[in-house]
Fold:
Amino acid sequence: MTPTVSELVRANTPRMIAAIQYLQGNSPALLIDLPPLFDSHFRPTDSNMFTGMDLHRSVTSAVRGREVSRDHASITERLLSWLWQTGVNEIRPEVNLDHPDVRGNCDLLVRGGYNDTGIIEIKACNEVPDYALSKHRMQLSLYLYAVATRNRGESGCWGAIAYCSLVTGHIRLFVWPDGTPNRKAMYRALKLAA
Structure:
């Protein structure tokens, strides 16, 4: 059976880590901070009231043109506004990336922006980190591999990890404008890791 991205990230095998060195070893080309806006649309909450699942549902609702709770609107609006400003022309939430080598659901699959296709992984946190966590880089790498090998006609992929503080409303994005993986190296590593 094809392994899921979550299974591979949890396994954290040396072969898998070696396979994703193109993101693991490379610092993101862009670090973008979207500071909190303390206005009537953002209400700092504790993690028991507003969870990561709430954030994902909020973003999905906004992309689909549905109403978003005022508690979630500030983070959601700023994240989506940033995407439109980068030149994204299509946003698809919760996309199943069923691939012969790996499967899973990415948070956002976009068209346009820094390259032909982009993957944005949204991470809810209390405080935004100073660097993209290794397990999140690995997850993004696997999704980029699945998209790049599935869409052979496209020139490239880009990826971003968006850390969203549910306490302060701060959003920090780590962006790889050219996250197109070395397809042969990833394929070999995935076969060895299976």
Notes: The radius of gyration is 16 Å. The first helix runs from residue 5 to 11. The chain has one domain: 5-193. The chain is about 40% helix and 25% strand.
